[in-house]
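Exercise: predict the fold of this chain.
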Amino acid sequence: MTAPLPRRASAISLCFTLLVSCAGEPPPKDETNTGRAAESNEPRHAATHVDLPREARRTILLDTARVGLEPIRAEIQATGEIKPNAYRLAHVSPRIAGKAIEVSGVLGQEVEAGESLALLDSLELGQRKSSFLQARANLEVARRNYDREARLFEEKISSEREYLEAKNDFERGEAAYQAAREALRLVGLSQADIDAIQWGTDDDRRLSYFPLVAPFAGTVIERHITIGELVSPDSKPFTIADLGTVWVLLDVYEKDLAHLREGAPVRVSVDAYPDEQFAGKVLYVSRQVDPSTRTIEARIEVGNQDGRLRPGMFARAVIGSTEADGGEVLVIPRDAVQRIRGESVVFVADQEGDFEPRKVALGREAGNEVEILSGLSEGERVVTEGAFYLKSTMLNEEMSGHEH
């Protein structure tokens, strides 16, 4: 958004004479305005004045801002929740059932790719490894016998039948070996793991042991496993997330869809760091509207190398526009707007120092500014700092029976 025109005035002292019109109607004001006025189909509030207590007149200072014309870039205010980047998220589970005998992974732990999170004991894996070792031994015997028979047959010492039998035994042994090797590969063992399988360990039951490892570097964000628990392929004992980037899933109102674009810049803030904003961009806009909330989900990606943004945090976001919408419009600071009985109201300061509550219709918001569709004219001044005090004073007077 272009830099706002300077509109703030110096503090207006409450030494102004605050006229209270409690008996009768105030004199009519000149409605002529040389500036550009925003048209309204709604009647303005009756010309009333706020009666401030004597003590407030000596202590409270009010700031005002000029109603001006400016180009405005559409900005969308939205709220949502921080989530892990689902493209860098993994549920770590085994390909074969096993009993947990050691668990090393803990919540919040930073792990590297291939790092062991737990050690499982699987009877089925032990059987597959045993079958593999037997098939490998049988193949070696069949190979030596085949080589011997082939040499003897070539030297005319053994018969063709003996040679063919040895060849068939070798081919069957090779097929059995490959099948046993593939059975191990299918349960997640690497080529190096398979080649390292040997008989004669200190504890033969170790053939049934296998580690549950992290598929990539990340953070353990979920753990659902205890020692002695039977872990199956459909369970999710660990969840690993790479939190170097996170997603912010925002609920954007249907009325703002026209200004929502993929690739648009986004400023994200969270309660944990109230004075900071995190830059991101719109990655994806849902093609469906939630019928219960009338909102569209927008997915924002935000860098998080320092890890301060954590999944589950509540987030507020301002989605920007890449270009100004239309020409100049009437704008005022957002701080000037108060909500009274469900309506947007501002306090207009006149030359005599009176403050008139005025109903306004609001349009788009951009940064700390809001568009005025009706209720104000260019050049008028509205109260910014202290507007809430004027609102409270006016409501207190009404409760006390004053009519203006």
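Check your answer against the key: The longest helix spans residues 123-154.
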